[in-house]
């Protein structure tokens, strides 16, 4: 399968790295990236070819990983090159509905909308997949295969994608934000930054592994919280400072921004 990634930025490169790590051959992957230094760096790091959109149109799968406001321009240019070629078009752009993608492409073009996340870079991604109206079951399976190669995926209805974005799409940033703040807290307590970083990173890795056993998050939190102990003192601060409410509001704001971008 020949796949061309259009837009080799943060998320595009994370997917590319994940696919190469999962065994996709560099010869089967290409990128369209107009920023010359970026394209050169991608070629040097990953050994994949840089091509133009006309050549991308002759791939089996085209993954659009440009910013949402750049999608319309890319689709317009790509549509012109699609005569005689019918690649599967995958878009990872936030807030860009299937109907908008399909309207910009020749009728009957197979489109799949995906919301991935950056842990795909290390094979631990989480992706939501929304099949377009002309995408066959085999084409949806192809996209699932691509996303499962770099983590896990779920097929969802488009009405759920803003909620999914607010958890798994943007979620890594919330966790990095917490990690960064915890490291700062450790430095305030007299640890070196390196010591605090090692402690926090392994605590995230271990806690994620525990969560992945399926034990509910609330039960895991209770197991750490000894009566009248240290954790209870910390969690009381978080509650008093409205951190739980802040997370509810953050998830809501993220989903609402996705809905706003879709309009
Ligand atoms: N960063 C993330 O964690 C996630 C991003 N996304 C989506 O992925 C898309 C890309 O986001 P980022 O990677 O964060 O942005 P980015 O700005 O890092 O990457 C965009 C890339 O597209 C390139 N580009 C611009 N115009 C182009 C064109 N006409 N043809 C080809 N390439 C072009 C840019 O030079 C840049 O390298 C967005 O639509 C975003 O909503 C989705 C899920 C997660
Ligand atoms: O911040 C954004 O808009 C993109 C979409 C999900 C994660 N990053």
Automatic annotation (TrEMBL):
PROSITE patterns: P5CR. Pathway: Amino-acid biosynthesis; L-proline biosynthesis; L-proline from L-glutamate 5-semialdehyde: step 1/1. One of its GO terms (cellular component) is cytoplasm. It catalyses: L-proline + NADP(+) = (S)-1-pyrroline-5-carboxylate + NADPH + 2 H(+); L-proline + NAD(+) = (S)-1-pyrroline-5-carboxylate + NADH + 2 H(+). GO terms for biological process: L-proline biosynthetic process. It comes from the Bacteria. One of its GO terms (molecular function) is pyrroline-5-carboxylate reductase activity. Keywords: Amino-acid biosynthesis, Cytoplasm, NADP, Oxidoreductase, Proline biosynthesis. It is found in: Cytoplasm. InterPro entries: 6-PGluconate_DH-like_C_sf, NAD(P)-bd_dom_sf, P5C_Rdtase_cat_N, P5CR-like_CS, P5CR_dimer, Pyrroline-COOH_reductase. Pfam families: F420_oxidored, P5CR_dimer. Its main location: cytoplasm. Catalyzes the reduction of 1-pyrroline-5-carboxylate (PCA) to L-proline. This is Pyrroline-5-carboxylate reductase. It comes from Tessaracoccus lapidicaptus.
């Amino acid at each position: 399968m020949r796949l061309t990634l259009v837009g080799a930025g943060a998320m595009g490169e994370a997917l590319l790295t994940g696919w190469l790590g999962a065994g996709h051959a560099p010869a089967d992957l290409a990128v369209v990236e107009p920023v010359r230094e970026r394209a050169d760096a991608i070629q040097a790091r990953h050994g994949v070819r840089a091509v133009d959109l006309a050549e991308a149109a002759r791939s089996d799968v085209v993954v659009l990983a440009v910013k949402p406001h750049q999608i319309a321009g890319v689709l317009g240019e790509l549509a012109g090159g699609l005569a005689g070629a019918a690649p599967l078009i995958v878009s990872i752009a936030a807030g860009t509905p299937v109907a908008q993608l399909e309207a910009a492409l020749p009728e009957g073009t197979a489109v799949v909308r995906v919301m991935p996340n950056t842990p795909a870079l290390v094979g631990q991604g989480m992706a939501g997949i929304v099949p377009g109206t002309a995408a066959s079951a085999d084409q949806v399976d192809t996209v699932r295969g691509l996303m499962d190669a770099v983590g896990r995926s779920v097929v969802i209805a488009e009405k759920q994608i803003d909620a999914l974005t607010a958890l798994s799409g943007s979620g890594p940033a919330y966790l990095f934000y917490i990690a960064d703040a915890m490291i700062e807290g450790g430095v305030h307590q007299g640890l070196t930054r390196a010591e605090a970083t090692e402690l926090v990173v392994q605590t995230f890795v271990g806690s994620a592994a525990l969560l992945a056993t399926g034990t509910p998050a609330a039960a895991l939190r209770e197991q750490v919280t000894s009566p009248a102990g240290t954790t209870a003192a910390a969690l009381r601060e978080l509650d008093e400072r409205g951190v739980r409410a802040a997370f509810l509001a953050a998830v809501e704001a993220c989903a609402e921004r996705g809905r706003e971008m879709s309009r």
